Amino acid sequence: LSGKTVSIDFISSTEVAFNVDGEFTNTLEEGQTQKLSDGSYLGVKDIRFSSKDGTLSSVEFSIGTGKLKLTNGADLEVNEDTISGLGVTIIGTNTLSSIAIAWSDENDDLFITTDSSATMPVFGSVKLSFGGINYPLEEVIEVKAGGDDYMVLENFPLRDSVEDIPILYGSSSAFTGIGKSATDATITVGPGLNLTWNKSAGDNYFVVSWSDGNDGESYLVRANNFDAANSQVDFEMRTDGSWTDLKTNREAGDTFDVGNAGAQIKLFELNATANNQTVLVGSVGGSTDFHTLYSKEGMKVYLPYSVNDTNVSNGAIDFDDDDGAASGFGHNASSFYLVMYEEDKDNQVEDGDWINVTIDWNSDAEVEVKDIMTSNADADSTEIGDSDIFRDFTYSALATEILWDKPSLKIWQKQSQFRSIMRF
């Protein structure tokens, strides 16, 4: 057997000894093994002993290059050596149902990259390799201080333009309005409300967003060219970094589309006097609103909108608490939760993880990103070396990357295509 000449030197009902090419073994019981001088192993499987004269006794045995020992709840043993990281689970008492061997990296030193693979110890036919990651779609959203007193979404990627969108301003450690300043305001309102945009007051623009639950689009819109004689006004939209005509010669009562997806707004009132250039607009249908913001690749951002109560919905902020009931942290003049939602792996908006960015004030009364939270609270941000830049990821299909370069924040939302390979 296996190039060896084997004979029985001794046999009883419980033990047997062998002569293997002149090498005598110990007496072995069923299930026992012995290492031979050439490094191979002889194992006894079954002893068939008969004490009657004229009958034959026999033994079933094997000779191999190694021995595996599997013990339930312990690591695998090979040739008397324990293999760390190969845990054994045996199911069955009188009848064997299954054997499972779990491969784990107990020392945290096994890495699979495009340049290195991992082969399972002992069982070399199982190999893990990594074919790399392709990012067909990628965008960056940056939340940063535009100065000491206002916070801005810098170079925010809208569907048709990339824009700096100021979101909150204030002074002396208190937010006082939405936008960059009192004369450079970003106008938002909460769900279901009409919006008043006042050119005379220095309002910059208002946000129009649309979503059907699967896709979402956002636009920056303003009114211009107020015509008092004809009670008409033009509406413009930011496209490729400049203002372009959206709809001209609009009158009170007109309804019109914004963008290409189906957002609709209605002009309710128009004031076109020299000192009062305002429009009152509202959404048409439940798919259009004036307080959310969708990036080109599907990140949903809840912009701040003013309330006068203890509303703690995403985006709600009570600037003055003049109703006597102070709003909760993240919804008042001292702090604000800027909430974002990833899209999911199927490009469905708001179906991924959320990212909660706390905008607050430092000890020098300067606005800053104070804290970051994610849906699963999966990990604390970790500093990259001594760079003072802290890194985190959402625990999701997109694995959105978060870089916190205090007091600013960069968020990478990526659509990833993994090429992982398991070979047997």
Brief overview:
This protein is mainly β and 424 residues long. Helix content is 0%, strand content 54%. β24 and β25 form a beta hairpin.
Helical percentage: under 10%
What is the CA-CA span between the terminal residues? Answer: 30 Å
Structural class: mainly beta
- Sheet bearing the most strands, described? 9 strands, antiparallel
**Which band does the percent of strand residues land in?**
over 45%
Overall average pLDDT:
89
Per DSSP E runs of 2 or more residues, the count of β-strands stands at 37
Number of helices: 0
How are the SSEs placed, and which strands pair?
Elements: E1 6-11, E2 16-20, E3 23-24, E4 33-35, E5 41-48, E6 58-64, E7 68-69, E8 75-78, E9 81-91, E10 98-103, E11 118-119, E12 127-145, E13 150-157, E14 162-171, E15 174-177, E16 179-181, E17 184-187, E18 195-198, E19 203-211, E20 216-227, E21 232-239, E22 242-250, E23 255-258, E24 263-273, E25 276-283, E26 288-289, E27 292-294, E28 300-302, E29 305-306, E30 316-317, E31 336-341, E32 354-361, E33 367-374, E34 382-383, E35 389-393, E36 401-405, E37 408-423
